[in-house]
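User: Modeling request: complex.
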Amino acid sequence: MSHPDPKDEIVTHLPALRAFALSLTRNRATADDMMQDTVLKAWTNIEKFQPGTNMRAWLFTILRNNYYTSRRKLNREVADIDNAFSDTLSVKPDHDGRLQMMDFKVAFDQLADEHREALILVGGSGFSYEDAAKMCSVATGTMKSRVNRARAKLTELLSLEDDAVLELTDAATMAVVGSPRIPS
Amino acid sequence: MSSVNDPKKQRIEKYIDENLKKVFSDLEDDQMPDQIIDLLSVLRAQDERLKQEK
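Assistant: Request completed. Predicted assembly structure:
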């Protein structure tokens, strides 16, 4: 039985890889450079990918390693941000929902790299804590702790402990996430 | 201190995760940059050439 070419599979993960790059770098030009490096590395090292394992996790790992290596090389503690993340606001069905989503993105932008990364891997992309931990070369407990701290920080930034705010955000979220094109 | 089963905490987590999924889905819809499309064309052409040389 012949196996499909794993290079064909790389292409199917590119939209998710780009979403991860944008959320990690928050800069369109940097995200595109990281994407280009990742695709080139994955393509030319495809024999290192083990068929049957999670290709998306493999690609995300290459991208995040590239990103942190380049940050270290440039000796940059603070990323060069152009709001690529919070600017990506598609048309939403409801004014309040749109404002709430913008608030959410602005708050998300303020999280530390490792917290943003943990939340996007586990909450946004649906990786298990175990897979996300492997991708970031940390223990599963560390990943759980990062996700919890990131959620706590967002809760604080968005004042979600306030019952009135939570009522409003629930209604606004339903207006946005209830949109039919959003996968459940 | 709120427990793991605290309904309010669960509601907040649900709100955050739903928004994260929405944000990630929006980012996935972002147009693929030309430089990536061009790179894929170059890599495929290169593979094709190598295959023919074998």
